[in-house]
Design a protein that fits this description.
This is DUF983 domain-containing protein. InterPro entries: DUF983 (IPR009325). Keywords: Membrane, Transmembrane, Transmembrane helix. This protein is mostly helical. The chain has one domain. The chain has 3 helices and no strands. Helix 1 crosses helix 3 and helix 2 runs antiparallel to helix 3. The two termini are 40 Å apart.
Length: 132
Amino acid sequence: MTLSVTTTEPVDDRPLGAALRRGWMRRCPHCGTGRIMKGYLKVADACPDCGEDFHHHRADDGPAYLTILVVGKVIMALYLAVFLAFRPEPWVMIALCWGVALAMALFLLPRFKGALVALQWSRRMHGFGGDM
């Protein structure tokens, strides 16, 4: 006797991992080729390649909070490690940590913004639902 079981689990047509990777690279979470940003932090109204709308995203302050969290943790660990290992002058510590913090913040901020918009797209939040 064979028992046949049919499952009706929904298929995820917007996988979270792929969307986050594409958003991190500042690419369209839908097609992966178009640019999601039209400036340093300005999200494009739509993807230039596939036409996916982004104008209704709600990234707001999330990317800034994530950037501050990550940069703050890394810089404090770096500050402590350098100070304990080398005991440099205060001006050296300030220049090193401020320089690294600025570079990290400028690198991470647009990537976190792209990833947050991609997260919203993947989970169909804030108007990204639509008919697909």
